[in-house]
Amino acid sequence: MQRVFSVSMIRAREATAVKAAGPDELMKRAARGVANAVQDVYEAGEVAALVGGGDNGGDALYAAAFLRREGVPAKVVLLSDHPHERALAAAREAGVQIYQPALNSADILPLLTPATVWIDGIVGTGAEGALKEPLASIVTTLENVRLQLPARKVVAVDVPSGLATPDGMVPGGALRADIVVTMGALKPSAVFPPACYHQSEVRLVDLGLELGPHFARVLEAADVREVVAIPSATDHKYSRGVVRLAVGSQKYPGAAVLATLGARGAGAGMIRLVTDEAARALVLAAAPEAVTVDGRVQAVAVGCGLDPQNLEDRSRIATQIFAAKVPLVVDAGAISVAAQLVHSGQAGAQQMVWTPHAGEAAEALSILDESEWTRERVEEAPIKTAMRLAGLSGAVIALKGAATLIVSPRGHVFVQAQAPAWAGTAGSGDVLAGVIAAVLAGVQARVEEEAGSLDWEELARAVAAGVWLHGVAARRAAGFEDADGQAGGVALRPGYGLEGGRPIAASDIARNLPGAFGQALQARKHSAREAL
Ligand SMILES: NC(=O)C1=CN([C@@H]2O[C@H](COP(=O)(O)OP(=O)(O)OC[C@H]3O[C@@H](n4cnc5c(N)ncnc54)[C@H](O)[C@@H]3O)[C@@H](O)[C@H]2O)[C@@H](O)CC1
Ligand SMILES: [K+]
């Protein structure tokens, strides 16, 4: 499990740690991490460190000093007239060339274009809001140059400069980083969109900080293993979790197939299908395991392939929402119906999970919030939006995107970004709804056996586990078979930062679910072996 903390918490605990460790001790540790990342991407040519006037620049200066001593031709381009004094002296002493150009792009660019690696040490967590001029214009120009020369690598110190926002918002221009070497703990910009999309990989340098409550969590394989139901000798199809899928219509029969394959691949004990006649035949051809007789279930998914404009579909959706006594996944067209029912006080007693994409979230908020919401407004501040929607709906919200945010009405936050960009394809969401329902059914079956009930934390965690399985399945389908993006000493290598791969279809994701499931179980085995 990775934990994400607020910028203010990290800064406060860093200040205490700096006092205890003595001058520049932690800064040198941070700089060591930056220098290591540069060494990993460096091939030839020179390295240029962009250095601002705070401790973020100090990290970059010490990193340049380390690199120079290791034989890498490193130079420093000062973007402030008050750089960190001791760090600057250390860089000078190591033989690093120091430049202090006038603060405009015309003077700065000729120093940077020959370098193959840039270190972004302009500002870190000390900057509030968007970068001020002239740094804002300089960074925008640098980003344009970087886009034209993609072979150049950028290693950012702590955060891409200007992105240390409390909620992942991007207030102005930013320089995209191949690697962010972040200090002490993961900050919101490392995981929350849109800021997180400005970086391909985030590495964490441990400063031994004593941190308080986290803001958000990222599940890893071993955490997913703790959530999913693994059958024992005495288990049977009912005790493993039964799912009802109220999905698919004459208009969209394929959605029923994909949701069924999703639930099947994620280990449902049994799938009860409530669907249109045409869809039923298709599903049974693709998944003869599905049962078309309704009965007792531990989780329900409704909405995939249902059209809320169609009266028959609408009534099927409302029936499921009224009748559900177990966790209910509300997907696609069913979300706006659920929002209307919540708004008129007719739904909300049971535990619901809504799985909107940005457009569906905007539609639901326009109903519940009584103000105009657009997709763009959602995408500017997804975590704030998801929290608002969770509060207004009383449901766990899984706001889908390259990074999917899972938020409970009680403020539990998970963020998962295993899936590569290839996963954004038609029907991918139908598979996800089936996966989440299957995981929830397993968890619900377990608590029912213990005569307990699911709390919001468990519910949100189970949804996050479903998003992990779907994302890792997509990663495997697209040819990234080795990892879930958090292994091998790397803090985060999210799917949206991956290069390469291959096109996938929603059914490919479903086919890879058992492999993803196995990957989660494997993780546990590895750590058990290591513990011996
Ligand atoms: N002191 C230490 O030993 C450690 C420091 N750390 C580093 O220190 C950073 C924080 O350092 P600081 O608190 O000095 O702050 P920063 O270095 O992040 O930023 C301060 C500088 O940015 C300028 N600035 C502030 N807001 C701005 C804006 N909107 N536009 C343009 N410029 C702006 C300030 O004038 C100042 O020069 C962390 O991000 C991290 O990189 C970490 O390495 C941990 C250890
Ligand atoms: K930075």
From TrEMBL:
Highest taxon of source: Bacteria
SUPFAM superfamilies per the UniProt record, alphabetical: Ribokinase-like, YjeF N-terminal domain-like
Residues reported in the UniProt entry to bind K(+): N56, D120, S161
InterPro entries (UniProt xref): Carbohydrate_kinase_pred_CS, CARKD, Nnr, Ribokinase-like, YjeF_N_dom, YjeF_N_dom_sf
GO biological process, one term: nicotinamide nucleotide metabolic process
Cofactor annotation remark: Binds 1 potassium ion per subunit.
Positions annotated to bind AMP: K400, G401, A402, A403, T404, G429
Cofactor(s) named in the record: Mg(2+); K(+)
EC number(s) per entry: 4.2.1.136, 5.1.99.6
Catalyzed chemical reaction(s): (6R)-NADPHX = (6S)-NADPHX; (6S)-NADPHX + ADP = AMP + phosphate + NADPH + H(+); (6R)-NADHX = (6S)-NADHX; (6S)-NADHX + ADP = AMP + phosphate + NADH + H(+)
GO molecular function terms attached to this record: ADP-dependent NAD(P)H-hydrate dehydratase activity; ATP binding; metal ion binding; NAD(P)HX epimerase activity
Keywords: ATP-binding, Isomerase, Lyase, Metal-binding, Multifunctional enzyme, NAD, NADP, Nucleotide-binding, Potassium
Positions that bind (6S)-NADPHX: 55-59, 124-130, 158, 255, 305, 357, 430
The YjeF N-terminal domain, residue ranges: 10-215
YjeF C-terminal domain segment(s): 220-520
Function: Bifunctional enzyme that catalyzes the epimerization of the S- and R-forms of NAD(P)HX and the dehydration of the S-form of NAD(P)HX at the expense of ADP, which is converted to AMP. This allows the repair of both epimers of NAD(P)HX, a damaged form of NAD(P)H that is a result of enzymatic or heat-dependent hydration.
NCBIfam families: yjeF_nterm
Subunit composition and interactions: Homotetramer.
Family statement drawn from the similarity comment of this UniProt entry: Belongs to the NnrE/AIBP family. In the C-terminal section; belongs to the NnrD/CARKD family.
Protein name: Bifunctional NAD(P)H-hydrate repair enzyme
Gene (name only): nnrE
